[in-house]
Design a protein that fits this description.
By secondary structure, the chain is mainly beta. It contains four helices and 32 strands. The strands form ten sheets. It has a four-stranded antiparallel β-sheet, with no helix packed on it. Strands 4-5-6-7 form a four-stranded antiparallel β-sheet, with no helix packed on it. Strand 4 and strand 5 form a beta hairpin. 44% of the residues are buried.
Length: 446
């Protein structure tokens, strides 16, 4: 393999191998602890309403910046970006395109860090003199996909009402005409969740500036307000509510105290009563009106740690190895081949319940995905690198005691070989994919 660093001599390699073996060979296998969440946040900021920032968190509290200026639309603004993960495996955002107008914007990403503009959709309300604000995704329990937005016929002065449009195709490119949600005038920033047969709508009363709570048994209402005024004790001057459900079943609501440029969250067991607001660390004064997407990765499959090799399940004479900084499944014969096909399996750089693969002959370099290709790169310490280099053990799709590896930051995509090149692909249901994405974790070749 041609690498950024020179190969060590054969004698030194033997010494390093011996030392590494003595340190690692008796290390117990790591134990995965069930599905592990991570939380993706998309936000605009106090410094820019034409650039979107992306953050990630392991606990829904402490968010790290993954990429600043991750997306800039070709024209207009990107306020209030709302993110979902669609059934095609892509991330989609919908956002406010301007202070006035009758369009909302759409963009798409394979990895939630690099985004491509898709289109602006005219929702058909109010024309250029009105305002169309704060579009939010809502996936109903029947699988239908909706966007709820607030619109005013008289521009920024109000009065706003919430409407919804519904996707009429799986590519999210065609939508119904707007339908009023059935909420009284002068409410904005509707955010919907559904529990059982009840829809919960958290929204801002533009008259009082409180976040209020309404419920209904139909998406079209009638809505009953069950929390009005200062019902939760958070005070006024709040907007942009967004909710996410935590692994223990509790709900977390985030909201923006826009006048003081501070962000808060509060937790609830039942969506009816919430605890006191808590300031979100590290984001006050920076992030504005965001949504948070929870994704689960990993399962209970433990992978032996320490020095290991990975043998292809359907080409049993081939092993995962690095060559010219790219990963392949190749036959191995020479000492160089064997060293290139040996990795130190360690706790995942981005999540300790998953795994990362460090090269034994180039310590400090890890297998990571880059544009869906598996490569060997030196760890630069960034959050993006850590996430790209983390894979979660899954029961082998091909069975027979094999193991498959799901991407930590691309849930639903698995390591697999294609034309003997290692890459990251969306999980397929056919036997070929199962074989290509399954490996036997063996004793080290090098």
């Amino acid at each position: 393999m041609t690498s950024p660093r020179k190969r060590i001599t054969a004698a030194a390699a033997v010494l390093v191998t011996a030392l590494a073996a003595s340190l690692l060979v008796h290390q117990p296998a790591a134990q995965a602890a069930g599905p592990v969440p991570h939380y993706v946040m998309t936000a605009f900021t106090n410094s820019s309403e034409s650039n979107m920032y992306v953050y990630d968190s392991a606990n829904a509290t402490n968010f790290s910046l993954v990429r600043s200026n991750a997306y800039t639309p070709p024209s207009g603004l990107i306020r209030d970006p709302s993110v979902i993960r669609h059934t095609d495996g892509y991330y989609y955002i919908v956002y406010t395109t301007g202070w006035t107008g009758n369009t909302i914007g759409f963009a798409r990403s394979a990895d939630y860090t690099t985004w491509t503009f898709l289109r602006n959709v005219t929702v058909g309300l109010n024309g250029s003199t009105g305002s169309t604000w704060a579009p939010e995704w809502f996936k109903d329990s029947d699988g239908s996909v909706h966007i709820v937005f607030s619109a005013s016929t008289t521009g920024t002065a109000g009065q706003f009402r919430p409407y919804r449009i519904t996707a009429t195709n799986s590519s999210l490119s065609a939508w119904t005409s707007p339908v009023p949600l059935g909420i009284p005038a002068n409410y904005i920033d509707s955010f919907l969740v559904k529990v059982g047969g009840t829809y919960h709508n958290f929204l801002k009363n533009e008259t009082t500036k409180y976040i209020e709570h309404a419920t209904a048994t139909s998406l079209n209402g009638p809505w009953q307000f069950v929390g009005t005024g200062n019902w939760a004790g958070w005070g006024s001057g709040l907007e942009g509510p967004a909710l996410v459900q935590l692994p223990d079943g509790r709900w977390r609501i985030y909201f923006d105290q826009y006048g003081n440029k501070r962000y808060f969250y509060a937790d609830s067991a039942d969506l009816n009563s919430f605890g006191a607001k808590v300031e979100l660390p590290g984001l006050s004064g920076t992030a504005r009106h965001f949504t948070v997407l929870r994704e689960n990765v990993g399962d209970s499959t433990a992978v032996p740690t320490g020095r290991r090799s990975l043998r292809s399940a359907n080409f049993t004479d081939r092993y995962v190895r690095h060559r010219d900084n790219l990963a392949y499944v190749d036959p191995v014969s020479t000492a160089t081949d064997r060293a290139d096909a040996t990795f130190t399996v360690v706790a995942g750089l981005a999540n300790g319940n998953c795994y990362s693969f460090e090269s034994v002959n180039f310590p400090g370099s890890y297998l990571r995905h880059n544009n869906m290709r598996l490569v060997l790169n030196t760890n630069d310490g960034s959050a993006v690198f850590r996430a790209d280099a983390t894979f979660c053990g899954r029961v082998g799709l091909a069975g027979g005691g094999t193991t498959s590896f799901e991407s930590f930051n691309f849930p639903g995509r698995y390591l697999r070989h294609y034309n003997y090149e290692m890459r990251l692909d969306l999980k397929g249901s056919d036997a070929v994919f199962a074989g290509d994405a399954s490996f036997t974790v063996t004793t080290p070749l090098g």
